[in-house]
Design a protein that fits this description.
The protein is of the alpha/beta class. It contains 21 helices and 17 strands.
């Protein structure tokens, strides 16, 4: 039973909270945050912990922070919402349930405990399954060494540039050359080239208005004789209706049915599946849905003995190559030690700060892996390819699992290129499922699974991606968000959010119209964002080579 799985975890968290004055428990997503809070309080028989995450209203989050700071609350279960920047007073303990996917994030979380001059921060990593113990062992040593990921600031985003330029001309006319020079004084735009600047200016002045899309009408006017750009009458309305730089993620506002007070936010997909009268939990309290409007969900407090957890649709946590490389190095070193017969449990305890039970669980896990494959552990120089020749319950089917441990920023583009290469070679469709540790491929029967590894190379991976990327969900999401920031997708009313499904339809229609313009700025920005931020192409090419 999946629900019973979390009961002992909640019991351990409650015991940790009982042993300290104040405890902060971090979870990797909102669903787990709510699930742990619910079970901790249910086991205690009264309210001892509150949930804290970005979907809760600001007033509720502030109340939770004040309660903990005043000593009226034993603990908070939080997502990254409490990683930094918020004063919640002295914390005795920090616990991370499941290993974070970023070393920098884990260091920040650990630093919340004993955050005072001259004090030492102490944190506990709490893995919940053997594979998580592997990540925790590597993470603990990385935290101790302070070996965090490098920061790569965004360079000259063109969608943001469109909003900057409109905001400048709304304040008054600008000489085009002077505008370009002023924008380049901002650090992010120090390397902005004139061609990219001109492309954005042309888009804003109606270059693509011939598509007859309302979204592409001119916002500014450029006088060719004086070289001065001025705002058109619709520019200010477009600017104020854009909503800033944060994209619409499709949340509904959750309000109290009687007072209309804002309680928090609910995912659009959860609301889509919800019905009047449904009961769910949010922020350690139970709610009943009374009414659903175009932008709000009205709720009342439900009876306390009814429990249900909302469906949270969170973004995938793509592990960076920096952390993945440390995991692969750990596996390679451990493989050598296992081959020599070394006492790895003792080394796990002394070098990776594990207690004996966790170290022994990891030892058994890695030894079972070697026994199951009859081969070395997967590591930096050794990819394990697993061929499963039947489907579930002996049903027909064939699946190949490529155990890379490269992390999501590499596995996702590798999977997309693999899918494109298969279609090119064999002519049929194939299903590919990547995550941080592997790429699973659902195949028709093939003779040799190793053929898959020859389809994608360092020399063709960008070309393969180029053929399929614009049709992918990750590219569509990037384009939709960029179009919103560039004020190409506008709200129908200033005080009313546009439903995400409508935003998606408008973005899809816009994308279909502008695909033929290879120099369309938002299209260029979507390509840059996916290849440089979502994916890590230089490292992928290096590994494939």
């Amino acid at each position: 039973n999946r629900d019973n799985f979390w009961e002992p975890v909640a019991r351990d968290m409650r015991e940790i909270m009982d042993s300290a004055r104040s405890t902060l428990i971090f979870a990797n997503n909102r669903r787990l945050c709510e699930k742990l809070t619910l079970r901790i309080n249910r086991q205690a028989g009264h309210l001892v912990a509150y949930a804290h995450h970005g979907a809760l209203a600001k007033g509720l989050r502030l109340d939770v922070e004040r309660r903990l700071k005043a000593g009226h609350l034993k603990g908070i279960v939080a997502t990254s919402s409490l990683e930094m920047g918020i004063d919640i007073g002295h914390l005795d303990r920090v616990v991370m349930v499941q290993t974070p996917k970023s070393i920098a994030s884990a260091v920040q979380r650990a630093g919340r405990a004993n955050h005072q001059v001259g004090e030492t921060s102490h944190a506990t990593l709490y893995p919940v399954y053997p594979g998580d113990a592997l990540d925790a062992a590597v993470m603990a040593r990385a935290i101790n060494e302070g070996d965090i990921e490098s920061v790569n600031p965004m360079e000259a985003p063109l969608d943001v540039l469109a909003q900057i330029m409109v905001s400048m001309v709304c304040a008054g006319p600008w000489d085009v050359d002077e505008m370009f020079n002023v924008i380049k004084t901002a650090w992010a735009y120090r390397n902005l080239d004139r061609h990219s600047f001109d492309l954005v200016l042309q888009m804003l002045s109606g270059k693509y208005a011939g598509t007859r899309l309302e979204e592409l009408k001119a916002r500014v006017f450029v006088d060719e004789e004086t070289n001065v750009v001025t705002a058109l009458s619709n520019a200010r309305l477009a600017l104020y209706g854009a909503g800033g730089m944060i994209p619409n993620r499709g949340y509904y506002t959750m309000r109290h049915a009687s007072t209309r007070a804002r309680i928090g936010e609910l995912d659009e997909e959860f609301v889509w599946e919800a019905r009047l009268g449904d009961r769910f939990t949010l922020g350690s309290q139970k709610w009943k849905i009374e009414k659903i409007t175009h932008s709000d969900v009205l709720v009342s407090q439900a009876e306390p003995n009814v429990t249900a957890t909302p469906f949270w649709k969170a973004d995938a946590l793509n592990r960076s190559w920096h952390f993945s490389e440390r995991i692969l190095g750990f596996l390679e070193g451990t493989e050598e030690k296992l081959a020599r017969g070394d006492d790895i449990v003792d080394q796990f305890m002394t070098q990776h700060f594990m207690d004996h039970d966790a170290a022994d669980v990891l030892r058994v896990y890695l030894q079972q892996q070697r026994g199951a494959t009859g081969a070395a552990l997967p590591h930096r120089h050794h990819v394990v390819v697993e061929h499963v020749q039947t489907g579930p319950d002996e049903s027909p089917g064939s699946q190949v699992v490529i155990h890379t441990f490269w992390g999501g920023r590499l596995n996702r583009p590798f999977a997309m290129a693999l899918e494109a290469a298969w279609k090119r070679r064999f002519g049929g469709e194939v299903e590919v499922f990547p995550d941080n540790n592997q790429v699973a491929v659902q195949l028709p029967d093939i003779g040799e699974p190793g053929e898959l590894m020859e389809l994608v190379t360092a020399g063709n991976v960008r070309e393969l991606l180029g053929n399929v990327l614009e049709f992918s969900g990750v590219f569509g999401a990037r384009f939709r968000e960029g179009a919103g920031r560039a004020m190409l997708i506008q709200r129908q009313r200033m005080n009313q959010r546009m439903p995400l499904w409508m935003t998606r339809l408008k973005a899809q229609k816009l994308l279909e119209k502008v695909k033929r313009y290879t120099d369309f700025p938002v299209l260029l920005e979507a390509w840059r964002g996916v290849l440089n931020e979502e994916f890590d192409m230089p490292v992928l090419e290096e590994l494939l080579a």
